[in-house]
């Protein structure tokens, strides 16, 4: 992975580049970011840069012997520890090293995936992965060896929150007396679940979530989506590229058109049309229905913010902006809370398997009433 393959995050990239260029590489670093963030991707790009034989000012070269191996995750000095569990093919003594082929496939497909996807990938959906006690013995053995090729031996520990206490203690010992020319890159989601004695020995890099614009760019590049659809996905993904990838499969219709049509009919009390729409809503399927309602809530929120201060809405495609502008005259302090609550309720009922058609009709009647109050 190279820095140029990660959208945005210029500040983080500059910090990391500088630390290498000025010889201030800390032996233990913690990349802290939520699922679907760039925490792992940044750690990978950083490791690639450190071992690159022809470093450029802003990135690794991508073509030297080291980069080629790093990018395929086959460099002998690039090691990984991640939560695993016994599976059909590894029925006992589950250790990271036994899952390296799966891990490479998984990361090369997308470094933004989460633990659930990893468990699915190795074929154990219902078990909890862990970094076991035995893993720590492997780790100690591993770092006692000299680097084969690179300047540094690099160990990436993915989700150290899932370390067995004795594995965490073994890691702590390694961090207290760091082996020469060895770097530990911890890629975690929540610092609270780590030993404070571990975090205090790492240099922490906070990795923010992706912005909506960045998610739009990502899904457009990766899935070649139309701008409108990409925007709808970004509004639901909450800065997670993992969520965005899943939504790309789930969202099967144009939420924006459906939503504007819905609101228009509610506003003008066109109940026959609303009944027709409820049939359409029914056919969306439950995941889509829930996503649609979350999308609607998100758009409502934007309308409300727009009513307070137009500059709070930073980024909307022209069609949506036009709608938000018009709709903000109908949504006021009198009805905003009730409208949002109604959508929340509808989502709640769909989640609990209520009849989607009934939920839709019922919400439509409520919303029609609230809109008139504005
Ligand atoms: Zn290189």
Ordered list of secondary-structure elements with their pairings:
Blueprint: H1 10-21, E1 28-32, H2 39-51, H3 65-71, E2 78-81, H4 100-109, H5 115-121, H6 133-144, E3 153-158, H7 165-176, E4 182-188, H8 196-199, E5 203-206, H9 212-223, H10 227-237, H11 241-250, H12 255-267, H13 271-283, H14 286-308, H15 318-327, H16 336-351, H17 356-373
Helix pairs in contact: 1-2, 2-3, 6-7, 9-10, 9-11, 10-11, 12-17, 13-17, 14-16, 16-17
The structure holds zinc ion (ZN).
Defining key terms:
374 residues, alpha/beta, Rossmann fold, Zinc Finger, Delta Prime, domain 3, 3 domains, five-stranded parallel sheet, 7% strand, binds zinc ion, P-loop_NTPase, DNA_Rep/Repair_Clamp_Loader
Structural overview:
One of its GO terms (biological process) is DNA-templated DNA replication. The protein has 374 residues and is of the alpha/beta class. It folds into three domains: 3-208, P-loop containing nucleotide triphosphate hydrolases (Rossmann fold, 3-Layer(aba) Sandwich), CATH 3.40.50.300; 210-249; 252-373, Zinc Finger, Delta Prime, domain 3. The chain has helices spanning 10-21, 39-51, 65-71, 100-109, 115-121, 133-144, 165-176, 196-199, 212-223, 227-237, 241-250, 255-267, 271-283, 286-308, 318-327, 336-351, 356-373; strands spanning 28-32, 78-81, 153-158, 182-188, 203-206. The protein has a five-stranded parallel β-sheet with strand order 2-3-4-1-5, sandwiched between helices. The longest helix is centred in the last third of the chain and has 23 residues, at 286-308. The mean pLDDT is 92. Bound molecules: zinc ion. Zinc ion binds next to helix 3.
């Amino acid at each position: 992975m190279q820095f140029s393959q990660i959208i945005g995050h210029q500040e983080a990239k500059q910090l990391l580049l500088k630390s290498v260029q000025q010889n201030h590489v800390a032996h233990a670093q913690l990349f802290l970011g939520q699922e679907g963030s760039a925490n792992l991707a940044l750690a990978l790009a950083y490791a690639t840069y450190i071992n690159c034989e022809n470093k450029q000012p802003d990135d690794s070269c991508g073509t030297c012997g080291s980069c080629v191996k790093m990018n395929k995750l086959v460099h002998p000095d690039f090691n990984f520890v991640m939560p695993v569990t016994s599976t059909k093919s590894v029925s006992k003594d589950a250790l990271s090293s036994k899952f390296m082929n799966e891990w490479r496939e998984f990361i090369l497909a997308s470094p933004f995936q989460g633990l659930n996807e990893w468990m699915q990938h190795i074929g154990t959906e219902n078990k909890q992965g862990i970094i076991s006690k035995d893993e720590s013995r492997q780790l100690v053995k591993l770092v006692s060896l000299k680097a084969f090729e690179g300047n540094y031996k690099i160990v990436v520990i993915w989700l150290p929150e899932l370390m067995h206490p004795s594995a965490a203690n073994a890691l702590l010992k390694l961090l207290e007396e760091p082996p020469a020319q060895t770097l530990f890159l911890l890629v975690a989601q929540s610092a609270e679940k780590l030993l404070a004695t571990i975090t205090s020995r790492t240099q922490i890099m906070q990795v923010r979530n992706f912005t909506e614009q960045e998610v739009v760019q990502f899904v457009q590049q990766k899935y070649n989506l139309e701008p409108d659809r990409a925007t709808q996905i970004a509004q639901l993904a909450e800065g997670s590229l993992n969520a965005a990838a899943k939504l790309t499969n789930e969202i099967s219709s144009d939420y924006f058109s459906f939503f504007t049509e819905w609101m228009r009919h509610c506003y003008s009390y066109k109940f026959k049309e609303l009944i027709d729409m409820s049939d359409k809503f029914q056919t969306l399927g439950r995941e889509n229905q829930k996503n649609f309602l979350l999308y609607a809530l998100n758009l409502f929120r934007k309308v409300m913010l727009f009513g307070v201060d137009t500059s709070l809405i930073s980024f909307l495609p022209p069609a949506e902006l036009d709608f938000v502008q018009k709709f903000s005259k109908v949504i006021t302090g009198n009805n905003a809370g009730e409208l949002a609550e109604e959508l929340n309720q509808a989502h709640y009922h769909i989640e609990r398997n209520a009849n989607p058609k009934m939920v839709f009709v019922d919400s439509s009647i409520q919303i029609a009433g609230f809109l008139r109050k504005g």
